[in-house]
Structures are given as structure tokens and as C-alpha cells.
């Protein structure tokens, strides 16, 4: 498992592109891995035949973990399937639950209950080490009853032993489920066919439960859900909305889009909103900040996140680093590049990290205005609605107040009320509107 970014320590195996026995060339794509909602192809480090796949699809593995063995056909695999650091190659694997295999776990005698229990534990409780699994199986411990004290609530050996000791002093507590002893082997078989990941079948995208249907969560959808819930629990959200007359922006784009195209850039309205947002951040730097217990962290660079829809797969937020240094043409090129590679699944994990402010142009799908969720740990997110021609009252020096048709758009700012008060949020958003309405 490669290190897919400076601070990326693990990833999810989403798809194997080669089966055991398939030939593979050096640098040819071997599997797909998902990290921070980014799907990345992992190339083969050598030419040969795939002798073994050590992590099933859906497994979460740490950087440095052995994923597969490649060699000559018939070649023996080393007895210890160890990572370069010397740890077990399955140390960080989570086994996903297959929806069709949700067996009634209360029935001790029903065949397969132990395997289903293992998969359900892995899915709902996170990574459980082989040592913890063995102890739990030997002592008939229901891991759902154990409080985890490790990182992220992970259940450790100490936790399960403490639970067993406490249960012995109170024998009437806890469930009576007793799964068969099942552990993940540390040694790898010496023949390739038995090393395939067929022990955990690839789950179907959907499963039927009565008249309804369950759609299995993808890594992207699960990551989005976790991030959105975290954001709503972290920041007190406040949204302010203004509208902008985009007559000058529309005229400027119409006059310059062909010239931009000759320079290799598609001049979209998003580039104008990005430019206005950046200039307004320079005028009101507190909006380009994050909350910390030590104080408010002001970001000197403007790393602009651009929310990009991936269709039914969800959305992703690639980041334009040091966006304050770019002209309108530079922004247009960066937006084109990141959006295109995001939809083609060609982004790198570091390209979706480090954002300090985010824009979401939800008007592309016809939305007039919205209250977006803050992209943590940022202070605010700018939402841009659809551009519509509407009748508005304008003041003319010669004619006075008249009704005219203008291209209008609602623009919203959702901000963290711990950092910004209403006046500060309105001042920033008013600056964005001013820049758009007086574009030159």
C-alpha cells in the first residue's frame, strides 16, 4: 500500500483490476484505492503474474501493508505474509458485512454465524485486531458490549480483558452469543490459488429487505456522511443571503470567452465567483480562518475549495492552492483542470486537502439559493444560485427608478458563528456582491 499523500496513512481497496493468475506489466494498474473520497489507481511495481491478493475489496489497509504478491507462475510465496515494517499483512484490514449474509446471530448452532458476526463487527465497530478477535471468541465476548478506549474508539486488548474481568464479577450481564473461534491467519499459504480474497465475496450494490431496497454505502458516500455530520456537530451554522446583478459579469464573459478558449481555458461563471470570493477574502481575512481552542487561526494563503459533483457517486472538493496568486485566466484553467480530473477520478489525495474556504455553485442544477454545510475546519462556504433574468427596480440618473430585466443570482454565505458575527458575515458577502456588480 503506497503512501498516497503527506498525511494519508490508510486507504480502502475499492476494486481489484487483476485476478490471481493474471499477467501484469510493470506500472500497469493493479487495483483501485479510495482515500478521502479520491479513487486512485495503484500501479504494479513489477512485471509477472499475480500470485496472491491479500486484501479483499472493501478492506481498509495502512500504508506499507502488503496487498499482493507478484512473481513467476508457480513460484512459492514466503511463509510469512509480512509488510516491510514486519507487521502482519492483515493488521489493518476491516472485513465488510455482506448484506445478504446478515444471519440471525443469536442462533449459536446455525452454520456461518461466526463469519457473519466477524463481518458485522468489522463494519460497525471498526478495525478489530486478530488478538482481540481471538480473546473475544475464546471467552464468548459480545464486542458490542465492550467500550473502546483506543484511537477513534477502537477496542484494544486491554478493553476486552477488562470487560471479561468485569463480567466474571457480574456473571449475569451481557449477551450470551458464542461465536466459533475464528482468527485471521498470520501465515500465508504457499500456493497461489488459496491466497485469493474469495473468503469475503464482493457484495452486490443493493440487497432486498422485504418490499424495500438497501443500497450499500460506497466509501465516498460514507465519507461524505461522516464529514457532514461532523460539521453540523462542530460549528453553529448561520446563513446570510444577498442577490447580485450580474450584468457586467455576463457582458465581460461574452466579450472574452473566445479569447480564453484560444488560451486553452473554458471561461465559466464559476471563475468570476471564485475571483470575487478571493478578493473579498483579502479585504476580510477573518473569513479565511479556522477555529482552534488556542484562538482563531488566520490562514495567510487562500486555498480555494471548489465543490464538484460526481453525479450519483456524491461530490468532492478539489483545492486550488494559493488561489490569491491567480488571474481570472489562471483561475479558469485551474477550475477546468480540477473539475475534469475529479470527474475522471484522476485527482491525488493531496489535491483535496488543505482548503481554507470553499465555493459551491449549486445554481448549475437550477437551485436558486441554498444553505450549504461548512467544509470543516474552514470558517465559511459561499453558495451561488442559478442566474435568472428577472424584473428589478434600478435607479437611472435621467429616468429615476425604472423596471428593467437583469441577470440576477442569489448568493449565500454560511459561516461559523463562533468566528464570525452577523455583521462580519454580511460585510464579506456584500463585498462579493459589490465586486461582481462592478466587474471591469
Q: What would you note in describing this structure?
A:
The structure is a single chain. The strands form 6 sheets. Strands 10, 13, 16, 17, 18, 19 and 20 form a 7-stranded mixed sheet that branches. Strands 4-3-1-6 form a 4-stranded antiparallel sheet, with no helix packed on it. Strands 2-5-7 form a 3-stranded antiparallel sheet, with no helix packed on it. It contains 8 helices and 20 strands. It is globular and about 90 Å long. The chain has 440 residues and is α+β, with helices and mostly antiparallel strands. It has a domain at 222-437: Chloramphenicol acetyltransferase-like domain (Chloramphenicol Acetyltransferase). Mean pLDDT is 80; it is low at 81-111, 113-119 and 171-204. α6 crosses α7 (328-343) and α6 (269-283) crosses α8 (422-437). It has helices spanning 113-125, 130-138, 157-169, 219-234, 247-262, 269-283, 328-343, 422-437; strands at residues 10-16, 23-24, 29-35, 38-43, 48-53, 60-62, 68-71, 206-209, 212-215, 237-245, 289-292, 295-298, 304-306, 308-309, 315-316, 319-320, 357-360, 380-384, 388-396, 400-416.
Amino acid at each position: 500500500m503506497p503512501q498516497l499523500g503527506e498525511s494519508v496513512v490508510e486507504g480502502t481497496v475499492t476494486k481489484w483490476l487483476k485476478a490471481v493468475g493474471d499477467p501484469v506489466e510493470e506500472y500497469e494498474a493493479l487495483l483501485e484505492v479510495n482515500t478521502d473520497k479520491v479513487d486512485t489507481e495503484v500501479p504494479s511495481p513489477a512485471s509477472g503474474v499475480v500470485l496472491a491478493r491479500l486484501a479483499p475489496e472493501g478492506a481498509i489497509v495502512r500504508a506499507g501493508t502488503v496487498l499482493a504478491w507478484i512473481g513467476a507462475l508457480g513460484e512459492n510465496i514466503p511463509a510469512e505474509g509480512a509488510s516491510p515494517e514486519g507487521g502482519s499483512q492483515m493488521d489493518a484490514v476491516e472485513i465488510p458485512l455482506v448484506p445478504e449474509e446478515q444471519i440471525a446471530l443469536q442462533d449459536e448452532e446455525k452454520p456461518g454465524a461466526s463469519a457473519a458476526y466477524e463481518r458485522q463487527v468489522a463494519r460497525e465497530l471498526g478495525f478489530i485486531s486478530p488478538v482481540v478477535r481471538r480473546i473475544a471468541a475464546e471467552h464468548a465476548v459480545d464486542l458490542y458490549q465492550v467500550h473502546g478506549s483506543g484511537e477513534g474508539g477502537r477496542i484494544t486488548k486491554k478493553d476486552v480483558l477488562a470487560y471479561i474481568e468485569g463480567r466474571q464479577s457480574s456473571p449475569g450481564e451481557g449477551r450470551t452469543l458464542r461465536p466459533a473461534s475464528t482468527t485471521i491467519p498470520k501465515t500465508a499459504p504457499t500456493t497461489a490459488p488459496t491466497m485469493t480474497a474469495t473468503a469475503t465475496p464482493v457484495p452486490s450494490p443493493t440487497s432486498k429487505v422485504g418490499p424495500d431496497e438497501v443500497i450499500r454505502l460506497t466509501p465516498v458516500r460514507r465519507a461524505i456522511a461522516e464529514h457532514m455530520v461532523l460539521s453540523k456537530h462542530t460549528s453553529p451554522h448561520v446563513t446570510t443571503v444577498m442577490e447580485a446583478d450580474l450584468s457586467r459579469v455576463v457582458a465581460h464573459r461574452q466579450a472574452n470567452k473566445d479569447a480564453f478558449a484560444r488560451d486553452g481555458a473554458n471561461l465559466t461563471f464559476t471563475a468570476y465567483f471564485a475571483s470575487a470570493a478571493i478578493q473579498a477574502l483579502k479585504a476580510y481575512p477573518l473569513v479565511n480562518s479556522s477555529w482552534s481552542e488556542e484562538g482563531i487561526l488566520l490562514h495567510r494563503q487562500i486555498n480555494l475549495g471548489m465543490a464538484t459533483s460526481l453525479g450519483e457517486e456524491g461530490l468532492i472538493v478539489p483545492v486550488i492552492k494559493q488561489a490569491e496568486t491567480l488571474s481570472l485566466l489562471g483561475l479558469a484553467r485551474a477550475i477546468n483542470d480540477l473539475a475534469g480530473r475529479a470527474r475522471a477520478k484522476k485527482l491525488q489525495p493531496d489535491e483535496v486537502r488543505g482548503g481554507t474556504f470553499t465555493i459551491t455553485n449549486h445554481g448549475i442544477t437550477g437551485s436558486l439559493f441554498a444553505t450549504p454545510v461548512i467544509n470543516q475546519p474552514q470558517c465559511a462556504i459561499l453558495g451561488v444560485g442559478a442566474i435568472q433574468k428577472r424584473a428589478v427596480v434600478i435607479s437611472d440618473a435621467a429616468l429615476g427608478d425604472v423596471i428593467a430585466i437583469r441577470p440576477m443570482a442569489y448568493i449565500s454565505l454560511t459561516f461559523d458563528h463562533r468566528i464570525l458575527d452577523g455583521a462580519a458575515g454580511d460585510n464579506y458577502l456584500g463585498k462579493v456582491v459589490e465586486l461582481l456588480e462592478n466587474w471591469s
